[in-house]
Design a protein that fits this description.
The structure is a single chain. By secondary structure, the chain is of the alpha+beta class. The protein has two domains: 1-33, no CATH class; 36-83. Helices cover 48% and strands 14% of the residues. It contains one helix and three strands, in the order βββα. It has one helix at 38-83; strands at residues 5-8, 15-18, 25-29. The protein has a three-stranded antiparallel sheet with strand order 1-2-3, with no helix packed on it. Strand 2 (15-18) and strand 3 (25-29) form a beta hairpin. It starts with a strand and ends in a 13-residue tail after the last helix.
Length: 96
Amino acid sequence: MPEALDVSCPCCGALLKVDAETGSVVWADKKKAPVKDFDDLVSNVHSQKSLLDEKFARSIRQTKNSKEILERKFEEARKRAAADPTKRPPNPFDNE
């Protein structure tokens, strides 16, 4: 049985052990990421915080708008029901 081949990945620099018979990867030693500077990490956290604050504000605006829209739809349905109280509401399972 032939021995596994050691191959270096050109993209990520990982060391791959490839089976000579099947050509499948048997083992992968991933290259460790370089140590980052503390100031870079802090600036990354601050940029993520501002992005999350923007997303939160957008979701609050959508929630407020959806409440108003639902209230308008409910009022319209109430008006239609008051206009013709004998009419049955539509059944979603009726195939007409």
